[in-house]
Amino acid sequence: MLYRKALRDMGRNFSQFISIFLMAFLAVFIYCGICGEWLGLQKAADEYYARTNLADVWVYSQSGFDEDALRRVEALQSVTAAERRAMVEVSAELAHSPKIETYILEKNEISMPYLSKGGGFDINSDGIWLDARFADANGLAVGGEITLVYGGFPITKSIEGLVYSPEYVFMENDTMYSDVKNKGFAFMSAKAVSFPGFFYSQLLIKADTDDCAALEKDISDALDGKYGVFITRDRHTSYNQFAMEIEQHKAMGAVFPIVFALVAILTLLTTMARLSAAQRTQIGTLKALGFSKKKIVFHYLSYGFLVSLAGAVFGAVAGPIVLPPLFYPSLSAFYTLPAWEPAYDISFYLIAAFTVACCTLAAYLTTREVLSLAPAESLRPRELKILKQKNGAAPKLWQKLGFNLQWNLRDAGRNKTRSAMATVGALGCTALLIAAFGMYNDMADTKVWQYEQIYRFETKITLTDVATYEQANNIAVLSDGEFIMENAVEIRSGGVKYTGSLLVTDGGNLIAFTDENRKEITLPENGVSVSHKMAELLGVGVGDTAEWRLFGSESYIECTVAGIYRAPMTQGLTMSRETFENFGGEFRPSAVVSAEYFDEKLEGANHVLHSSDMSAGWDELTESFMLMIYILVFAAVLLAAVVMYNLGVLSFTEMQREFATLKVLGFKTSRLRSLMLTQNLILTFIGFLTGIPFGVLLVDVVIASMGDSFDIIVALHPSDVAISALIIAGTAAVVNLLFSGKLRKIDMVSTLKSVE
């Protein structure tokens, strides 16, 4: 009997049970899908780094490391292993002369290449192990040969294997987008090297300490200060860039799914409570027929338990299967991992269990409340709460309100829980929409800020490392361009040290500088200017002292901060050529920028880039981020529709007797529809207003996870508010229209008939 009753109840309340299923599904699906994606990235990277024994520290020197220096470092107590290697940049003898960063290994125990095809690295072999993605892009295969050119000196090697490298999960390029056809890496044994004059310029170190400052001091003492750069994992370009990518996804996975879950779970609680309360007459009948309290309780528990369990299980299974593969194609175009697979975590099962428990608990608490009543009392309809009005000014104000507002305010007061849940639902959905549209517009603004407001050039021609001044000057003359010098730099102040970028300008106005409000400013001609983000990290301001050195240099240069500028993507120092040369630096242009469109690759040029290329690079970099925003918008709209429809069903069910009474009194269906719409819009408007600051807070959290290289201004755009308002209000209006038919079909006789 109870089984048949359950089926009949589910059929009669199909829409409410579907909404419970969908909310449980959405909450778990979004959480498990996004978390499964970034957990998969983290797991794959950790396993990759462990399997290849990625170095903890890289030490570089322009003069090289001899065996004695290696032994002194190996002897340090905190160092567990160390080895030397050399790196020479060569060009491949192919039509487009791509660059290959070739590593010459003395041993192969730290940061080992990861085999993709062919044979494993052999320290005694005379062959070469080539970047797998570079080889595929250029039609090279195991067993073939490749000719490398270094300083005009050619060397031909047999390709023994295709590999990945844990140091090249992300490959830095002149362009922001992936360029595996024009740049790659390779590994060779020192026994097979015939390059003239190479030396071991790098030390790879494994250490068992987390105190990087103390480790650097020990290594510096062991090397007598004769080294140029000390880089830990956290500062290594590839490791840091991929870690920041994971942090962005992790932030979105930690914040947005929780908002989804909270909104869905709170609405589930109200839905199950109201659904069970609507069954008080049936509960009284079952008690009168002699059914035990235990049987009745388990009967109603099954409503919340089975439906929410189905939704939660389906969400937990489908989330990691459906969502991660949507992100991996765009990520794999930019990053290189041996495997791209989602990961599972115990939290998936916990959030699913928590969702089911909340829904089941709501059914239990409501059923228990009704079971505490005597059968005769529970057979009577629930009495409506009577709101008392106090004497004084309130009644006068109340009389001035129209019937529509009076009726809705009275109903909201009688059903505070439902009203609160409608407000919370609108708040959560608004916060998600504001955050999603806000991040989208912030990314779009950043693109305009960097590539239109700051970069005023149309063409950027990067120069090779061996380009002569005559070649560079010829390029500048023919392209009507101006020189710039870009380099990596270490900056320190007050014991704090960061890696940044150095920009040296040689006059001209093709690169602009902006302040904290994105207004153009002029930097001091004679002095060093620091980016806003770097100044915050170092804790310095105008007039303070800092020290800097180029990568590879063994000594720091002290300077006074002359100006602060704000840039969205590159953080570091800027100075004029005159200032740089006054510090004793040798100005070696790394690129020529021109306001003209120039497409000829002259001798000495490495890449010819246009503004459209750089803009496309930004689009590729943020592709997976934007995809996540689209998913959040879709899920937020779907959640808003489900929440509002569900609460609309509850509202209609609870007010059915009042609607029937109003129809008897002559109210038309259009007037009743207006009553429902007014209440929905008022509660939605309150939730919308309170949801705006929460949406901005969500954007702040996600943008803060993007790392030290980005300085993106978080701003609330009027369009963010307008579009979110239209979506929320439109959803509320559409949901209200769905109940027009129900209002017309109210059976006034059966609805108003007293329970005998």
Write out key terms for the chains shown.
alpha+beta, 21 strands, six-stranded mixed β-barrel
Q: Brief overview, please?
A:
It is built from 24 helices and 21 strands.
Using the CA coordinates, give the radius of gyration: 34 Å
Query: What number of structural domains do the residues give?
Result: 4
How does the helix and strand content classify structurally?
A: alpha+beta
Based on CA inertia axes, which overall geometry fits? elongated
Overall pLDDT level: 83
For the report, how would you describe the main beta sheet?
Answer: 6 strands, mixed, barrel
Strand content: 15-25%
Uncertain stretches of 5 or more adjacent residues: none
Topology of this structure?
Elements: H1 2-12, H2 14-52, E1 57-60, H3 67-74, E2 79-92, E3 99-105, E4 114-118, E5 128-131, H4 132-137, E6 145-150, E7 153-164, E8 183-189, E9 202-207, H5 212-222, E10 229-232, H6 237-277, H7 280-288, H8 293-322, H9 324-332, H10 346-371, H11 375-378, H12 393-400, H13 403-414, H14 416-454, E11 459-463, H15 469-479, E12 481-493, E13 496-505, E14 513-514, E15 520-521, E16 528-531, H16 532-538, E17 545-550, E18 557-565, E19 572-576, H17 577-582, E20 591-594, E21 605-610, H18 611-621, H19 623-654, H20 656-664, H21 669-704, H22 718-738, H23 740-744, H24 748-752
Parallel strand pairs: 3-8, 5-7, 13-19, 16-18
Antiparallel strand pairs: 1-9, 1-10, 2-3, 2-6, 2-9, 4-7, 5-8, 6-7, 11-20, 11-21, 12-13, 12-17, 12-20, 14-15, 16-19, 17-18
Helix pairs in contact: 2-6, 2-8, 2-10, 2-19, 6-10, 6-14, 6-19, 6-21, 8-10, 9-19, 13-21, 14-19, 14-21, 14-22, 19-22, 21-22
